[in-house]
């Protein structure tokens, strides 16, 4: 005979008869067992097995929670350097077809104003004239071949980086492909100007795409191709630590949102 919910409460409350908490059978209960387990259930070890499984689940969840917390928290340097907000919307993937990398990852207005001033003071904001032939051609390549309509920010990023490596002259020469030191200095200077890792990633991605564009122009110049490929390799090497820093900031932001959402729900 199986006890219903009402019977279970009545018989236990009135202490008229013991009810097995596992199978809800009346009678045939181990009298000395505080869990009110019948002989059959006790013999099968259901309580001991259930307790063991619950214990393992509790331990596993606690371990994964601690491990997840440790992996989400970025280093103090990254936290102090980058204060991200949900409105930032940084792009962690590569450049999407038909989308401008620069337009996807521009910082908020207040952050941009501060970074703008820092870059100007450090000489990182100068650009080539907007009618520079190679840049006009690059913009046309982005719009017509890659179908990136909003590409002005990307062109500007490339223009600033090229101007840093070539301070004088109105026409871009290809000597920048050999200027690995100046390229590294520019990336480091962007960090010192307190640009977010996502913004620095944009500069590197934009420059890689510019060099890839150059490869489509001089298809028969083998030495030039070798120089372009070597420069792309350099940029990819510089991108790795920046991508790692960006991932830490993104994880920290996601964790903060998760905690904030949990507090709001409470």
Automatic annotation (TrEMBL):
Question: Is the keyword ATP-binding in the record?
Answer: no
UniProt GO molecular function? nucleic acid binding; zinc ion binding
Which Gene3D superfamilies does this entry report, sorted A to Z?
Answer: Zinc finger, CCHC-type
**InterPro entries in the cross-refs:** Znf_CCHC, Znf_CCHC_sf
Alphabetized UniProt keyword annotations: Metal-binding, Zinc, Zinc-finger
Domain spans labelled CCHC-type? 20-35
Superkingdom of origin organism: Eukaryota
What protein is this chain from? CCHC-type domain-containing protein
Q: Which organism is it from?
A: Channa striata
Q: What is the lineage of its organism?
A: Eukaryota, Metazoa, Chordata, Craniata, Vertebrata
């Amino acid at each position: 005979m199986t006890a219903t919910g009402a019977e279970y409460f009545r018989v236990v409350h009135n202490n008229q008869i013991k009810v097995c908490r596992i199978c809800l059978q009346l009678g045939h209960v181990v009298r000395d067992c505080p869990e009110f387990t019948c002989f059959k259930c006790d013999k099968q070890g259901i309580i001991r097995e259930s307790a063991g499984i619950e214990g393992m689940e509790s331990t596993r969840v606690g371990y994964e929670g601690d491990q997840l917390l440790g992996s989400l928290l970025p280093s103090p340097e990254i936290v102090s350097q980058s204060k991200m907000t949900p409105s930032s919307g940084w792009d962690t993937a590569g450049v999407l077809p038909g989308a401008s990398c620069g337009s996807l990852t521009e910082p908020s207005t207040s952050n941009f104003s501060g970074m703008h001033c820092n870059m100007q003071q450090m000489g990182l904001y100068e650009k080539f004239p907007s009618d520079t032939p190679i840049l006009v051609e690059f913009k046309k390549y982005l719009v017509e071949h890659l179908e990136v309509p909003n590409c002005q920010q990307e062109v500007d990023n490339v223009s600033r980086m090229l101007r840093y490596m070539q301070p004088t002259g109105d026409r871009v020469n290809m000597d920048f492909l050999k200027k690995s030191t100046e390229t590294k200095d520019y990336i480091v200077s962007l960090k010192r100007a307190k640009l977010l890792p996502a913004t620095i990633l944009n500069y590197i991605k934009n420059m890689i795409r510019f060099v890839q564009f150059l490869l489509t122009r001089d298809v028969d110049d083998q030495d030039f191709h070798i120089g372009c490929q070597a420069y792309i390799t350099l940029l990819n090497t510089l991108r790795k630590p920046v991508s790692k820093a960006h991932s830490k900031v993104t994880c920290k932001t996601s964790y903060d949102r998760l905690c904030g959402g949990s507090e709001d729900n409470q």
